[in-house]
Amino acid sequence: MREFVFPDGFLWGASTSAHQVEGHNVHSDWWAWEQAGRVKDRSGAACDHYQRFEDDFDLAVSLGHRAHRCSIEWARLEPAEGQWDDGALRHYADVVRALRRRRLEPVITLHHFTNPQWFLARGGWTNPKSIDWFLRYVQRVALAVGDSVRYWVTINEPLVYTRLHYVQGLGPPGARDFGQALRVIEHLIRGHAAAYRALHAARRPGSPRPRVSIAHHLPEFRPCRRWSLRDRWISRVTDHIYNLAFLQALTEGRAAVPGVVTWRIPEARATLDYLGVNFYGRQFIRWAPDAGAWPGSSCDLGHHPREVTERTSLGWDVHPASFTYVLCRMAQMGLPLLVTENGTCMEDDEHRWRYLLRHIQAMARAMQRGVEVLGYCCWSLLDNFEWADGFGPRFGLVEVDYATQRRTVRDSGRQYANICTSNRIPLDTSWNV
Question: Are 155 and 272 spatial neighbours (Cβ–Cβ below 8 Å)?
Fold first, then answer.
């Protein structure tokens, strides 16, 4: 059996996000959305990670992790416009220090789907002032913890955020307006660019140079019906919008969706130091002019029984070879890659481990082809609140009993720990990667 040995210093770890694990994030727009009954579950105490973070980081260390990706909650730091909670800021400084003490490399996300309620009340990311408000928050964070953080993620999955909240209406403010969505995308580009420059400007002499990126959700898009010219066209356009246009803006300072919009944002040029990659599978796209704001829609995976042979409990496609494809494709940008999310909510833990093993093998195959990958952060360290899907999906390497907050390491977490500690993986050709 052949093995792949990962580079020294490879960042093995896991990811979380503040609202999904901390609990009682009462000033965020998602908390208000939940209290209004817009989703089936309320996050409530979630995993109580705000209080238990030290113990959770000890668990990560016991599993051989070398890095941990987590987020800072803007709504805690600025619960009302211009009013700052110094206690919350000290808390996140404590979080970063706790990671450093355990030799866990912090990968800090500044925006992970949530906003302060006051921010949304003033138009959120549709308001041009959102860029200045976000910048003000980023500067506060950089001043407090910047010397201790090397890897930053400014915005998690900007296109997923835009689609869910402004096209599909599945998160606050519940909009279904493609015009608003385009404004949000532009302001997220400008917000990232402003944050990038602020994080670099905050660096003190002698401190490591920060490495700043976004975490970009990168599915492989395919036409639902290969014979359909419209399906092939809309899948290409969807790929351009969701996978490429945002990145073009952050590398070239301009991006265009032909016939729809052109963004010229020169200050966004060259504002990626690496690329954060979130990967979960393929999506098959069909032409659907009746779909609403966008004339494309994901088609039922059941239409592809020969291609889609495995799905997660959420019905998502499982196809590790697409992970290799995405990593090789993104490597053409000339930037190092960091896998900021990859994981599954399989109900059977053996299936969860099989998923992780095959995807890590797929990543190794990309690295064999010369792709520079800095690390791999599994989603997620803990079971958590999965937005509109509530507490049903279980993504954690560590099981959480929400009634008692008891943590139990799953066998998949222990198997993953073996890879983290050995820094190698078998490339068994019997696995269908």
Answer: no
